[in-house]
Write a structure and sequence with these properties.
The chain folds into two domains: about 160 residues, Phosphoglycerate mutase-like (Rossmann fold), CATH 3.40.50.1240; about 45 residues, no CATH class. The chain has eight helices and six strands, in the order βααβαβαααβααββ. Strand 5 and strand 6 form a beta hairpin. It is globular. The two termini are about 35 Å apart.
């Protein structure tokens, strides 16, 4: 029986319009990661392995948690986020479907993006939807063999896919999980009886103190 704790990275550059520009923690993101590291330390939380994607925002978040885990960071690109900005630019170029300018518009936008991506309508995507699902499935399987309790720092799209796999959700359910994800939210999957089950989603115990309520962010 293995417990995998998935942490979404701290807030990144929310004003970005490209993958490169987005990939850095904001000052708030650095604080969020530090708060979570302190939380794990105070609880004396023990992990058998610490994984992170190759992206700067993932690595920097993982470093803030490393003193709690007392483990070296195992870097694996399968934990990298989907290339959202690349995909949305392809929607613009191929279908003249532009990024929204309202919060509600993003809901419709994600549904359209995922529908076109899953059905193979987007030409030459960075990866196919099937590759995305497969790499998350394979990563989860490898991590569960890394020890009874594993910590992984990743991104919202990867966590949403992991939840989809655990609960056998459809794509609409995946998108709901994706949009609900918060920076440094803690999600836990337990492998038991030959499959994963969700036991905790998007928890923020390190930000629940009244003095830190303004430190919560979705993006």
């Amino acid at each position: 029986m293995s417990l995998i704790t998935l942490v979404r990275h701290g807030q990144a550059n929310s004003a970005a319009t490209t993958e490169k520009d987005y990939d850095q923690l904001s000052a708030l993101g650095q604080d969020q990661a530090a708060y979570l590291g302190d939380h794990f330390s105070k609880l004396n939380t023990q992990f058998d392995a610490l994984f992170a994607g190759t992206l700067h925002r993932q690595q920097d978040t993982a470093k803030a948690l490393q003193h709690a885990s007392k483990k070296p960071i195992i870097t694996d690109a399968r934990l990298n986020e989907i290339e959202y900005y690349t995909l949305t630019q392809q929607l613009i170029d191929q279908f003249d479907y532009h990024r929204p300018d309202t919060d509600h518009g993003y809901i419709d936008h994600f549904h359209t993006l995922y529908e076109y991506w899953q059905k193979g309508k987007i030409v030459n995507p960075p990866e196919t939807y099937q590759m995305y699902e497969t790499r998350v499935t394979d990563m989860l399987d490898d991590m569960r063999h890394a020890g009874p309790s594993v910590l992984a720092v990743t991104s919202g799209g990867i966590i949403a896919m992991a939840i989809k796999i655990a609960l056998n959700l459809d794509t609409a359910g995946l998108i709901k999980c994706l949009l609900a994800g918060m920076n440094t939210g803690v999600t836990q999957l337990q492998y038991i009886h030959r499959s994963f089950t969700l036991i905790q989603m998007n928890a923020l115990p390190h930000l629940e103190h009244p003095s830190r309520l303004d430190a919560k962010s979705f993006y």
